Amino acid sequence: MSDSFAVPPAPTSGATSLPNVRRIGFAAPLRWLGLGWRDLWRQPAASLFYGIAIAVAGAVILGVTASLPYLFAAAITGFLLVAPMLAAGLYELSRRYLAGEPAALTDSMLAWRRNPSALVGFGLLSILAGTAWQVASVVIVALFYKGPALAPQAMIIEVLVNPQHYLMFFIYMCSGGLLAAVVFALSVVSMPMLVDRRSDLLAALSTSVNAVAENPLPLAFWAALLMLLTGLGFATALLGLIVVMPWLGHASFHAYKELVE
Fold first, then answer.
1. pLDDT tens, 128-137?
2. Where are the beta strands (DSSP E) in the chain?
3. Which of 12, 16, 205, 211 lies in disulfide reach of 259, CB 3.0 to 4.6 Å?
4. C-alpha closest to that of 181 among 136, 227, 139
5. What are the distances in angstroms from CA 109 to CA 90, 106, 112, 199, 253?
6. 13 near 209, Cβ under 8 Å?
7. Is the pTM of the predicted complex or chain greater than 0.85?
């Protein structure tokens, strides 16, 4: 956490200036994981409650789409797009730990009261992003998949092993990666910021983008760690998400606190 730069205020009259964004080192995400792990075990029952809730939500989403090959893979990605919204209670727990405030599970459930309209707006944007990806996924598969009708898992294997589907796979991955990058840039700081302080949604989103623009390599590393650990959670039939998601939620709050003054 060496330097910082002042993000200029929006040019509109009467607009408030955005918070300063710090420059961080490449290895900072490893420190965030350490701090998140510590927070996870301060009150494991409270943190794991959110992990169980997220894992159950993921299981329901995958269960609903299990027989829908056009939506199954997109449901996994869509779930990841809205994950920051699901972690609001975890951000509140970490905020309270740092502030020395009471941090019971019931307290964490009141995170929305600080910025209700902005948090609802962020939730709607997350749902919109997830829905947009579902629609885009259906369109890509409908246009480019030329194989037989298969169950979702079999269809994924078919796409991966059959060269005739490589164009579809490339388009699908590029489209999903682009959307994920945009969502990451908009959310890596904004959701914890809305939980931590009074701010409007546009200011939080702008600050998040500024943080990514100022620290592209460390935050690319952070995004890779998020994907890797979340993938491990999915690889354990979602059971790993019970620990992984609260761990990453707490770590994400510490990322925000280090990135934003």
1. 877 787 788 7
2. 4-5, 21-22
3. 211
4. 227
5. 9, 5, 8, 19, 16
6. no
7. no
